[in-house]
Specification:
Radius of gyration: 36 Å
Strand content: 25-35%
Helix content: 25-40%
Shape: rod-shaped
Number of helices: 1
Distance between the termini: 135 Å
Order of helices and strands: HEEEEEEEE
Number of domains: 1
């Protein structure tokens, strides 16, 4: 007699999915990696933005000062009263007006001043109403002792720079300038000094 042997062909069941603990660990590690990568990206973007902003306002300040220096170097007369030192910040002027020294055939003046956060450049002429085509110096007076009339030349009141929140002038012969710039949270101060060749 033959004995029948029963063979069990069933394989033991294996768990093909993830356990709850494994899923939680995977999500936690993924979240930490995502936060680290996001933080690194945000920090690098902020650093780039700060550097870019600082470079922009510094470049803007150099453009303003280059133009102002060129014109101040040639002037023969500064109208604005400038103190010799910056010991008392309260008396430092925050704008400047001086005679244009590039074209001496016409007497006219240049004024740099702050309007909102912009530096503006104005060209000004003085004349007497009796002779409006003859331009005179700002301190001249007519036969009756009257001062001249001031006129801003049409089209010559222009913005030449932005992001400026203050400017200061002082010095005697050597004119010192502090230019303060601000954009967002970034600030820069640029200092320079110029000799007036014709003062």
């Amino acid at each position: 007699m033959f004995k029948t042997i029963k063979i069990n062909n069933h394989k033991p069941k294996t768990n093909l999915g993830f356990s709850l603990v494994e899923v939680i660990i995977a999500i936690t590690i993924s979240s930490i990696l995502f936060l680290i990568i996001t933080s690194a990206y945000i920090i690098s973007q902020n650093a780039y933005s700060k550097t870019d902003t600082r470079a922009e306002i510094s470049q803007n300040g150099r453009v303003i000062l280059d133009r102002m220096i060129r014109e101040l170097r040639q002037t023969q007369d500064i109208v604005t009263t400038i103190p010799e030192t910056n010991v008392d910040p309260e008396i430092l002027p925050h704008e400047i007006m001086f005679q244009d020294g590039h074209d001496t055939s016409i007497i006219r003046y240049i004024r740099y001043y702050i309007d909102n956060s912009n530096i503006n450049r104005q060209v000004i002429r003085y004349y007497f109403p009796s002779d409006p085509t003859n331009y005179v110096r700002w301190y001249d007076s007519d036969q009756l002792g009257n001062p001249p009339t001031m006129e801003i030349v049409a089209g010559e009141d222009k913005i030449i720079g932005e992001f400026v929140y203050d400017i200061e002038f002082w010095g005697n012969g050597l004119i010192n300038i502090n230019l303060y710039l601000l954009k967002g949270a970034e600030t820069t101060t640029i200092n320079t000094a110029i000799y007036g060749r014709n003062l």
